[in-house]
Amino acid sequence: MHFDYNKLLGKMKEKQINQETLAHKINNSPATLSLKLNNKARFKQSEISTICEILDISSNEIGEYFFSY
User: Fold this and answer.
1) Is 53 a member of any domain?
2) What is the pLDDT of residue 58?
3) Which CA distances in Å does 16 have to 36, 52, 59?
4) Residue 44 lies in a domain
5) Does the pLDDT value for residue 1 go beyond 90?
6) What is the mean pLDDT of residues 27-51?
7) Residue 44 — φ and ψ, nearest 5°?
8) Considering the domain boundaries, does residue 1 fall inside one?
9) Total domains, the chain
10) What pLDDT, on the 0 to 100 scale, is given for residue 64?
11) Each residue of 46-64: pLDDT tens digit?
12) Which domain holds residue 36?
């Protein structure tokens, strides 16, 4: 099962947060975040929660950003 993270990537661009910065804020390496955004690894719930706080994603929008096929 592959998730579509294009909307998440767009939100990162909108907030001017690059992958390296976001990776460090969620205690991941940039390489690990890249694996997650490319469906080679899964996000942890705690990472999703932190990303939502950083990018101002509301709880009712989580599905759109993290669980779209």
Assistant:
1) yes
2) 98
3) 19, 15, 21
4) yes
5) no
6) 98
7) -85, 155
8) no
9) 1
10) 97
11) 999 999 999 999 999 999 9
12) 6-66
Residue whose tokens read 């929660």: 49
39 φ/ψ sector (left φ>0, alpha ψ -120 to 50, else beta)? left
> Which contacts of 51-56 are long-range, i.e. CB under 8 A and separated by 24 or more positions?
51/8, 51/22, 51/26, 54/15, 54/17, 54/22, 54/25, 55/8, 55/11, 55/12, 55/15, 55/17, 56/15
| Cα–Cα distance for residue pair 53/47, rounded to 1 Å | 10
Instruction: Give a yes or no: residue 59 inside a domain.
Output: yes
State residue 38's pLDDT score.
Answer: 97
The residue type found at 63 is G
Q: Is the pLDDT score of 17 beyond 90?
A: yes
| CATH code, domain with 35 | 1.10.260.40
Contact 41, 35 (CB under 8 A): yes
Q: pTM of whole model > 0.90? A: yes
User: What span, in angstroms and rounded, lies between the C-alpha atoms of 27 and 61?
Assistant: 23
